[in-house]
Each structure stands twice: as structure tokens, then as C-alpha cells.
Design a protein that fits this description.
The complex is a heterodimer of chains A (about 230) and B (about 220). By secondary structure, chain A is mainly alpha-helical. Chain A is built from 7 helices and no strands. Chain A has one domain. The longest helix of chain A is centred in the C-terminal third of the chain and has 36 residues, at about 185-220. Chain B has one domain. In chain B, helix 2 (about 20-40) packs antiparallel against helix 3, helix 2 (about 20-40) packs parallel to helix 5 and helix 7 runs antiparallel to helix 8 (about 190-215). The chains are: A mainly alpha (about 230), B mainly alpha (about 220).
Chain lengths: ~230, ~220
């Protein structure tokens, strides 16, 4: 119970948010209507992805400071988990956009451009890791790319949408928002647990993948890490 | 960090460039042929906004061509020799300065190629020039680091272009926006925030390159 209570919390919160996401009460806004329920799925998935990419970035920095292969494992696994969460985030967003904006992909939206850039960065990161055979070189080079690319993506996601305020996302440029005005307290009761639940889920996934990688490493190498 | 070392390294780069004139010539030839192909493809003339997009795409790939040489030509033995002589920051500063100058030359030459073969729709030339200089500085900084990363993998050139595209998207988008403003001859007050954004990206890219290069250099 000491170490795995948070996994139970994660399952409970995610199940709760899925159930309440479909049957709970939502305010009926123009255009959005029932599609506002996507808030419970789409946004927490992105949050989980951002958290994983932050973890990946942090451990890339830790790796460069001392070259401990343990941190490279965490960093690369977190990047993989981030990618895994990006895909359903993208799909839920596209389904929602089909019914709200009329098409699954609106190229002019700076948030979509940012997401595409972030996904490209991480696909290239996986490719780069696959291209370098030697473990230490792979770790070093990909950590450098990770740090550089993360900051560029962060700049892109954080600065560019503010310069070009024509995002179609709810809450931007005068569109009906999930945020300040339209999310009533009923929705908050589902939205915040959903965020926490999905982030915990992603951390759990990272934990499992990292342990797998560690076992594999200890099988292949003479010097063990714990 | 020692200024005289940086100057010595830069002098070496320029000497190499002028001794084997083929490298700069090949980049300019590349630009010229791409512009010629575009001229042939767009029979009915190019609309101003397409012109901007085309210009930056050509410049981007010419930049990849130009910057990819900065580390691919370094042999392993010379790398070790340099490693004993210079601090990594000196080395990367010289490479970045050299690439910035190279990209400036390439971008000015592409403007000439475009205006000669296609047309020159820009109304606000000063803003366009400023965009070119700041934008290609950012490209040069990012491409220098990417070329170093790519030189560590086996098949370098294709990896280099793959690595560079996603990290250069913000630079490209900002430059495109500014170029469009320059083509339309909009008020400068509209463009200030993009100019400062681009300058900020310049600073971020160059600081990151200086900080990260030392980890790449050590074998």
C-alpha cells in the first residue's frame, strides 16, 4: 500500500472522469453544446503530454551533468510516453474540430501549428536515437537535441500564439471559452480530477517503461544499475 | 575564451573558403537553379505571398547546404587537434559567426536571383533586409548545432535536414510573417512585435548553442 496507492488514485480518477464526462451536466453554449465534454479528455491528455516532455527535458539536463545512464533512460522513456499521449490528444482534438470547426485540421490556428512542430520534434528525436548505435553517444547527442528542441518548441507554443492572436481555440480571440466564464463549478469537479488522473497515469506508464528498460540494460551489461 | 583564438579560427575558415571556391559557388548555383525551376513552374507569374514562402523555403534549404559543411568537413584527427588547442566556446563561436556571414551572403544573393528571374514585389525594402539579416542569423545558429549533431550520425546530410526542419519552424514562421508585412508595405508598428520576437529567438538559439556545444564536442 505504501508505494502503489497513487496508482489506485490514478485509476479511480480516470474512471470517474470518463463516467462523469459522459453523464455529468454541462452548460449549453452556442456552437460548443455537448462537444464541451471533450474538455475532460482532450485537455488532460495534452497536460499529461506536456508534463512528460518537461520530465524528459529535465532528465536530459541531469544526464548531461554527470553522464549517468540512468537519467538518459528516464529522459528517453518520458519522451516516448509523451508521444503516446500526444496521439490520443491529437485524435480527440480532431474529432472535436470536425464537429465544431467543420474540418479536422485548421492550418491557421497557431496552437495546431505548435502541436505539429512538437510532434515533429519528438519523432525526429526517436529517429535520432535509432540512428546512433553506441549507448553513451546516443544518450549524449539525443540529450543535446532534446534540450534544444524542447526550448524551441516551448518558445513556439508560448510566444508565437501571443503574437498571432487568431487562434480558433475556445477562450482565444473572443471564442466561447472553457476557461474563465463558461466552465461552471460542476465542470471543474470533473476537469481537475481528470487532469490529475491522466498525469498520474502517464507517470505510471513512465515508471513501467523505465523499469523494463532497466531490466533489459542489466541483462545486457555487466555493470548493473538499480 | 580568447578573442585572438576566435579570430584565428575565423581566418582559417575564410582561407579554406577562398582556396576551394567550389563550396560557395555550389551553394549559389543551387539557389540559381532552384529559382530557375520555380520560374519555369509558375508560368503566370508568382503572387506576392507565394513569393515570400518560396523565398524562405529556398533560403532554408540553401542554408542547410551551406551550414552542413561546417562540421562534415572536419576530420576526426583535426577534431582532436582542435580539441587540444581551443576552448569549445571559442570553436563554436567562430563556426556560428562564419555561418551567419555565409548565410547573409547567400540570402542577399537569393534576393538578386529572385528579382532577376522572377520579380521583386517587396514594398518596404528596409524591413525586408532587416528580416533577412535577423532571420538568417537565427537559421545559422540553429543549423550550426544541428550540423554538429548530424555529423555524429552515419548518413549525415539527410539527417541534417530532418533535424533542422522542426527546430527552425518558429524562425521560418516569424520571418514569413515579417516578409509578408514587408511585401504589403505595412506600418512598422505592426511589425515591431515580430521583430523583437525574432531577435529574442536569435538570442535564445545562440545562447543554447554556446551552452550545448561543449557536450557534443567531447568524444
Amino acid at each position: 500500500m505504501k508505494n502503489w496507492w497513487w496508482k489506485i488514485v490514478a485509476i479511480a480518477l480516470v474512471l470517474y472522469s470518463i463516467a462523469m464526462g459522459f453523464i455529468g451536466n454541462v452548460p449549453h453554449l452556442n456552437i460548443l453544446n455537448e462537444t464541451i465534454r471533450n474538455l475532460y479528455f482532450h485537455v488532460p491528455l495534452w497536460f499529461a503530454m506536456l508534463v512528460q516532455m518537461g520530465i524528459s527535458w529535465f532528465f536530459a539536463l541531469r544526464y548531461l551533468n554527470g553522464y549517468n545512464i540512468k537519467y538518459d533512460m528516464l529522459s528517453s522513456r518520458a519522451a516516448y510516453v509523451g508521444g503516446m499521449f500526444a496521439l490520443p490528444g491529437l485524435i480527440t482534438g480532431s474529432i472535436w474540430a470536425t464537429y465544431t470547426w467543420g474540418k479536422p485540421w485548421v492550418a491557421e490556428d497557431p496552437k495546431l501549428q505548435g502541436v505539429m512542430a512538437a510532434m515533429l520534434v519528438y519523432f525526429v528525436y526517436y529517429l535520432l536515437r535509432a540512428l546512433i548505435p553506441d549507448a553513451q553517444t546516443k544518450a549524449r547527442i539525443s540529450a543535446v537535441y532534446n534540450i534544444f528542441a524542447f526550448i524551441m518548441t516551448f518558445v513556439f507554443i508560448m510566444i508565437y500564439p501571443r503574437l498571432a492572436p487568431n487562434s480558433l481555440h475556445p477562450g482565444n480571440g473572443g471564442n466561447p471559452a472553457f476557461g474563465k466564464y463558461d466552465m461552471d463549478n460542476n465542470m471543474r469537479l470533473v476537469f481537475y480530477p481528470a487532469c490529475i488522473g491522466w498525469i498520474l497515469m502517464s507517470v505510471w506508464l513512465l515508471n513501467v517503461l523505465n523499469r523494463m528498460k532497466k531490466l533489459q540494460y542489466n541483462l545486457d551489461n555487466d555493470e548493473k544499475i538499480n | 575564451m580568447n578573442i585572438s583564438n576566435i579570430i584565428a579560427l575565423l581566418r582559417k575558415e575564410f582561407l579554406l573558403e577562398f582556396r576551394q571556391k567550389t563550396s560557395l559557388a555550389s551553394i549559389l548555383l543551387y539557389v540559381l537553379s532552384i529559382v530557375f525551376i520555380s520560374f519555369l513552374s509558375f508560368k503566370n507569374g508568382i503572387k506576392p505571398d507565394v513569393w515570400g514562402a518560396l523565398f524562405w523555403i529556398v533560403l532554408f534549404f540553401a542554408g542547410i547546404n551551406a551550414a552542413s559543411k561546417s562540421f562534415f568537413t572536419e576530420s576526426k584527427a583535426r577534431g582532436i587537434y582542435n580539441y587540444t588547442l581551443y576552448h569549445p566556446t571559442e570553436f563554436v563561436v567562430s563556426k556560428i559567426i562564419y555561418n551567419i556571414l555565409l548565410l547573409w551572403v547567400v540570402s542577399i544573393c537569393s534576393v538578386f536571383c529572385f528579382s532577376w528571374l522572377i520579380n521583386y514585389p517587396v514594398q518596404d525594402s528596409l524591413l525586408f533586409l532587416l528580416t533577412l539579416l535577423i532571420g538568417s542569423t537565427a537559421l545559422a545558429g540553429a543549423l550550426t548545432l544541428m550540423s554538429c549533431i548530424a555529423s555524429k550520425t552515419g548518413n549525415s546530410y539527410s539527417v541534417m535536414s530532418l533535424l533542422s526542419v522542426p527546430v527552425c519552424i518558429p524562425v521560418m514562421l516569424m520571418s514569413l510573417r515579417l516578409t509578408k508585412n514587408a511585401i504589403d508595405g505595412l506600418e512598422w508598428s505592426v511589425s515591431y512585435k515580430y521583430l523583437t520576437g525574432l531577435l529574442l529567438i536569435d538570442v535564445i538559439i545562440i545562447t543554447l548553442s554556446l551552452f550545448l556545444f561543449r557536450y557534443l564536442w567531447k568524444e
